[in-house]
Amino acid sequence: MTVLQALLAGVIQGITEFLPVSSSGHLVIFHALFGEGEESNLAFTVFLHLATLLSVFIMFHKDIWTLIREFFASIGDLLKGKPNFKTPERRFLVMVILASIPTAIVGGLIMLLGLDDILENIFVVAVMLIITAGLMYLVDKMNKGKFTQADAPYKSSWMVGIAQGIAVLPGLSRSGTTIFAGLLGGLTKEFAVRFSFILSIPTILGAGLIQMIGVVRSDYIEPDLFSWAVGFVAATICGIFAIKFIKVLIKSSKFYIFSIYCLLASALAFLIGFGVIG
Which of 99, 154, 160, 222 sits most deeply, having the most CB atoms within 10 A of its CB? Predict the structure, then answer.
């Protein structure tokens, strides 16, 4: 992989991981165009996931530290026989845990059933991008929610978690799908976005673990350390700007721009799949 290819892959991963346009779908398209080896793709994708994870830690370090502190504090309360999950922080912690369960189940099923190939299928990407476009169009039309971390019903976290599990399919945006599910569950737009990004932490870690197993099983290819470093830095910086952009955009009703973009990306994926391009 050249430095330019690594840079482009890092920019794509950093932007599309958090913008509702599907990072996995874009990386499938990218690799289809450049034709890199499968093992190299997989290892580099794991590396880029770490970069986007760093972006979340930088942007939400206060929330993350609070959740970690409350996690250990709640364990201490349970050991004392005095469980307390009534505070907004503890409620948010439980919501993140509950929402992570469906995603873990879906990831486990993919491994057990050997469905890894579907994650690299260009036609699956094309169809899922159309669905993502539809969801982003609906986000603008949905009523404003009223629930925050202080009073959000736990069923909302299940809805977001199930949506995130389904979003394992390439082309179906994880961030877009979970934001849509959060709004459908009555969450405010601001909280739906924050919940989606915080929830990406266990998701990215889980995806990285699954992909790392694939790397270990394959004939691993030695990386070009400089190229990979360029991709890592690009993904981290672009991830930070993407998160800031979504936090601003969610206050308006302009998610339709992602609908248009996803439809164009879907058309490109179909052209690649049918051999017209690439």
Answer: 160
